[in-house]
Design brief:
Protein name: ATP-binding cassette domain-containing protein
Number of domains: 1
Helix content: 25-40%
Pfam families: ABC_tran (PF00005)
Bound molecules: adenosine-5'-triphosphate
Function: Part of the ABC transporter complex HmuTUV involved in hemin import. Responsible for energy coupling to the transport system.
Keywords: ATP-binding, Nucleotide-binding, Translocase, Transport
Shape: globular
Mean pLDDT: 93
Oligomer: single chain
GO molecular function: ATP binding; ATP hydrolysis activity
CATH architecture: 3-Layer(aba) Sandwich
Length: about 250
């Protein structure tokens, strides 16, 4: 089922943005600081109300869904991983089953176990969240999203706090979730990650969607020069590109 924005506008943040995201794929949302990436993700998640336009899940308005149905459909991982209560990692991840109300059922427990394994959290179950490092907490918060088995995973800079191995592992997890039929949209600053791992890239510039295409086209050197104002060159091969920035 598609997730789409139509003519979305939010004063000073987004201007007439329209895009349709498909399940089974990873969409990267890129752009300079302040371009509107987090705002767009928040609108797609139904957490931010746009001044104009609408968000559609399939042919239904996201805003018209009951909160529980919306939470089952869309899992959102915010940029800043604040946890209001100092619960254990096990309790935090189990919260992902809240929209299903089945944390104690066989299916619920299996989903939680899958999320723990996917995020490499074995051994952390009893730890209070306040004692985790930044990267460990980021993995616990992602596990909460995965435990909910949402149709859509919307993640705001999920790689930012992760070391190299856990970045690679997270990208594998997101690819597996996409292969399983979910839709994945991630905000990323690392354009090489978007180039090598996304199926599609949206580029925002000052609130305007300026590219919506396969990575090689959306992140062409000319687009990077225009949007980021940086003289950069792609080197390497498809799937293993690196971006060389000329000073
Ligand atoms: N709550 C808010 N109220 C008003 N303006 C906001 C609010 N949050 C963000 N903005 C502004 O909206 C614009 C887009 O912000 P947004 O956080 O979506 O950008 P971003 O592309 O995610 O940036 P970054 O890469 O720095 O995280 C920015 O100019 C920002 O200052």
């Amino acid at each position: 089922m598609t997730l789409a924005v139509r003519g979305v506008a939010l004063a000073g943040r987004l201007t007439d943005v329209a895009a349709t995201l498909g399940t089974g794929t990873i969409t990267a949302i890129c752009g300079p600081n302040g371009a509107g990436k987090s705002t767009l993700l928040g609108v797609l998640a139904g957490l931010l109300d746009a001044d104009d336009g609408e968000v559609l899940l399939g042919d239904r308005s996201l805003a018209g869904l009951r909160p529980r149905d919306r939470a089952r459909a869309v899992g959102y991982l915010p940029q800043s991983g604040e946890v209001a209560w100092d619960v254990s990692v096990a309790s935090l991840v189990a919260l992902g089953r809240l929209p299903h109300g089945d944390g104690d059922s066989t299916g619920g427990r299996a989903a939680i176990a899958h999320a723990f394994a996917a995020c490499d959290l074995q051994g952390f179950a009893g730890r209070p969240v306040s004692t985790l490092s930044g990267g460990e907490k980021a993995r616990a918060l992602l596990a909460r999203v995965l435990a909910g088995e949402p149709q859509w995973i919307l993640a705001d800079e999920p790689l930012a706090a992760l070391d190299l191995a856990h970045q690679a592992s997270l990208l594998r997890v997101l690819r597996a979730e996409a292969r399983a039929g979910r839709g994945v949209a991630v905000v990323v600053h690392d354009l090489a990650v978007a180039m090598n791992h996304a199926d599609r890239v949206l580029v925002l510039d000052r609130g305007v969607l300026v590219a919506d295409d396969a990575p090689a086209a959306a992140l062409a050197e000319g687009v990077i020069a225009r949007v980021w104002g940086v003289d950069a060159q792609w080197v390497g091969e498809p799937g293993a590109h690196a971006l060389v920035v000329r000073p």
